[in-house]
Structures are given as structure tokens and as C-alpha cells.
């Protein structure tokens, strides 16, 4: 029994109203699996969650759970474990010290657990499966919350993007499937006056519109998605999946010898390494491939700002977790200075979002040199060229004098959309080019006027002298590497993005793990990205992965503007030996290089047998011996040897 209320429950008091609810118990008490995401209704016969607040519990297939309680300006988290035996469940919330064992009941929608969340002693709490409703009609994956309707700002008879967005959003709110709602929006747009062309982007999620006067607009439904309940992963000793309040990493080694870790192998010793400790770093050969500026910029304009995710108010943190804090910790670990642009709410209004965030972004990028630029949020694929359209910054300030003067009290139509785009372009000191705009002004799901930063923004900054040629840019957003137009615009030394619409938690976990691995000295962004993919591939089991949770969708690009070549298993073993042999306590890459070169020159080149040098053959992968190309690749990856082409090296911590 709990004797002290933790900070989690003390904070939750503000989220609740007290009242009695029905204590009637229903349900079948059976389900093939309880894995999934649930929203707390309250304690049966006791405290209920008040309107506008959410308490969300995710039961994972590996037997772990996470809890996130949110109301505007406040967020509390917990983690724990659960295990079902027959019709009984043992469940524990660790920080809150809530635990119970007993019968559970689940009818496919409502889950009743043998623990009280807010009360003391024995009792039952009631949870609703995300996406389920008592009427049986499909709903969104979070409790319905009333949203403001900004349709009065738009001329719905003459602005097709706003009119189509409203049709789409209203259809989703009524329970229409997303695909059908997008089609309803397209039908609406195609029948509007002055629209000469309208069609879907290649992923079927966004609509491009062309008017008779040549002006264009977009309807954007593509967003970072909540994770798929349950997922397609299997458990291991490394607690797969990120819990609320934790940061995603790759294991150094695992109890399962098949599990690849942060070296590409499961190094429980071996491969010429007598003692392996991932926390003891090798002595690098050179720091020439690390950015000269040990400074990072982390951007998430909607991090704690609610905006509609298919009609449900959702922040980026709601779908991603505490990713920015995780990245800050990794970067500070290797002595980086970290700047942030993080959206939040103050006095009921968003700050550091929308045009405010753009203003800060311009100031920072033109006054500071950054080794790392990271964006977490929404992006989308545009119809024209099937290219990455840009990063969604959030709601604009219509009371800004320069914009207010353009609107002049009128409702927004397509001509005013173009005028606002032009006004923002000139306001922020860019060149207006309607054929290649810097910004896009578009309605969010609730018709909030919002602004998108397009790739041309980075191209024009470069023309003004901003240099990204030593920078790693990671855009953790949907479709950010659907094409490489963003790479062409910014010209970074390394770039990481995604091919399609993704789960927010999945891609933010990838970012956390990749940056954590980059804190290892002599670890390239090429290797870190591919090691994450190798581990994800190992984790995946069962039916086909959800496309938004598929490792194959990560794209990592080098300075040559092309995707990095893959590193093979033999080369990873050589890299491991170079970075950590003969033992991590005395690891010196320069000394290890002499060993690897001698093995090649004296043993592998001539294909001598195992008796010639057992130490060299301990590095063989399978029945073959390392080739010259694999040796060269390994030496290149640890900074010993240069290779023409190939995208070059980018390291965080050499």
C-alpha cells in the first residue's frame, strides 16, 4: 500500500474532478492480447479524469508499460510492468508505487484493472482502448476534445484549400476513415469554381490545387502518427521500446548473443577484444571530421503546443515523448552547447511557434555556426515533383501589423494566401519567388492559419552566407527524405530524414538512439544510422511492419548528396576491433591499425590458414577472410584512411 503520494499523483490532482461513477462491472474478461494504448476514465466509484486532461497508458508486448498524464502546461510520466496469467493480471506503476494482482475485465473497448489510480486500498480503475468508442463507431486514438473552429477566417467559397480541409476534418470527426475523408475533400475541391486541377500526392495524403490564375495551394493531412498499439517487436534483455521519461539507446551487449548492439555485433568479448566496455572510449586518430562548431540547434515549434492531429488536440511531445531532453543530454555529454526553439504555451497563447519560431530560426542560423541542426515535428510530401514540401512551424500571428495590413479585415482567399506568403518572405528579408517560395501559408485541421518553412528557405540562407557544409541536419519529420531536394537546398555534410509518413514515437526513438551512438568517439553518422537499422531489423518479427514503424524508411545522406553505401558485417567486426582492441581500457586506434594492416598484408591477402595467425583469423566473419576493400572501409570509418567519394565522414565526438 502507498503511504506517500508521489509527484505524479500530486500533479494529477490538478487534472481531476471528484465524483462517483457507476460501479457496475461488465465485460468478457478475455482478450488475445491487452497490448495497446488506453485512456484512463477513472477509479470505479471514485475520482474521474476531468475534461481537457488525459492519462494515457501503453501496455507493450514485452511486458513493460508507460503512463503519460497531460494537461496544458503540465506533464507527468511513469513506467512499470504487467503480466497476464489466465484471466488475472499483475500490474505495477513503479514511481507511483501502485501495484495489484487480480482479475481484469476487457470487452475489446473497456479495460478494468485491479488497482486504484487515485484512491488508497483495493479497487478497480477503468480505461478506454484508444480508438474504441462505446457506440462502436471508429474514433481517433485519443479522447474527443472540443476544438475551436477557425473557419470564419476563411472565404470557404473561394479558397479551396480551406474548404477542402474543413470537409476532411468534419468527415474524420464523424468517424469516416482517413482515406475516405481525403477523397471527400478532393471531390469538394474539384467541384469549386476557378479550380483547374486538383489531385493527390503520390502517398495519397495531401492534395495539390491549381487555380485558373496560376495560383496554387495545398491541403495537408500528413502528420506524425501515434505509435501502432502493440507494435511488431519481440522482447529482449535490453527493454526494447522507449518508456516515458527514458531515452532510447542501443545495447552494448545483450544476454541474447544474436542481438546486434551499438557495434553491429553483440560483443561479449571476442573478435580480438579481451575486455569490452562501451563507456570507455578509444583514443581517436584525428578530430578533422568533427564539426568545428560544437554547437547544436534543436527545433520543435509544436513540442508542447496542442494542435489538431486529425481533429484531436495533440502536441509533438504527446506522440514522440521527451526526445528533445534526451538529445540535449547526449549532446552535452560530449561538451556541445545546445540552443533550442521549443514551442510552448504561456497565458493561453503559443510562444516559440509559427512565425515567432521562424524569426528565432533566422536569427540563430545567421549569427551562429552549428555542427548539428535537428528538427522534430511535421513535414509532408507535396504533389508537384513528389518532393519534401517543408517543416510545419505552427500557427501564425494574424495580429502582426505587417500581416494584418495585408488581410485588411478580409476573409482569407487564395489571393490573400499568396499575398501573406509574399509579405512573410519580404518581412524576414528573403527574395520573393512565386515559382519557388520560401514559405507556405496553409490551414491546419481546425483551419488555424499556419506556416511551413520550405527548402528554399535554406537555399536562400546559403546565398546570404550561411554555411551548412560542416553540419549534420536531421529532419525527424514525415517525408523529409522522400526526395533529396532538402539536401540540395541546404548542402549539409550529412543529412538524415524519412521516406514517408511515420510514427512520431518511432522516429524520435531513432533520433535518440542515433545521437546516443554518435557520442562514441570515431563513430560516423553513416555507421550510427545503419547500426540503428540493423538493430531494428533484428527486433522485427511476426507480420509485416507498419510502414510508419519500418526501419527501411530511414535515409542517411553524405556530403556528395547521395545515400551512404552499406557497411557489411565483416567491416563492422574490423571497426569493432579497431575501436576497442586489444581491450577497451587501452584501446588506441593508431596501434590497432597496425594490427589490422599486418593481418591483411601477411595473412588475409595471401589467404593463409587459421594456423598461420589465430589472432587474425579471430576477426574472420564466416568462412571468408577480410578483403582489401573491407579493410580500407574499416580504416576509413575510424578516421585512418581517406576515400574519394562515398559521402565523406561526419562525426560528433572525434
What descriptive keywords fit this protein?
654 residues; alpha+beta; 16 helices; 28 strands
Q: Concise description?
A:
The protein has 654 residues and is an alpha+beta fold. The protein is 26% helix and 22% strand.
Strand elements, count: 28
- By DSSP (H or I, 4+ residues per run), the number of helices equals 16
The Rg value, from CA coordinates, equals 27 Å
Strand content: 15-25%
* Low-confidence runs: 1-8, 13-32, 133-146, 230-245
- What is the CA–CA distance across the termini? 50 Å
Structural class: alpha+beta
Q: What order do the strands of the largest sheet run in, or round the barrel if closed?
A: 8-7-6-5-4-2-11-10-9
User: Mean of the pLDDT scores?
Assistant: 86
Task: Based on Cα principal axes, name the global outline.
Answer: globular
Q: Work out the helicity level.
A: 25-40%
Reported for the largest beta sheet, the result is: 9 strands, antiparallel
Account of the protein in words:
The structure is a single chain. The protein is α+β, with helices and mostly antiparallel strands and 654 residues long. It is built from 16 helices and 28 strands. The strands form 7 sheets. A 9-stranded antiparallel β-sheet has the order 8-7-6-5-4-2-11-10-9. A 6-stranded mixed β-sheet has the order 18-15-21-26-27-28, sandwiched between helices. Strand 4 (54-59) and strand 5 (64-71) form a beta hairpin.
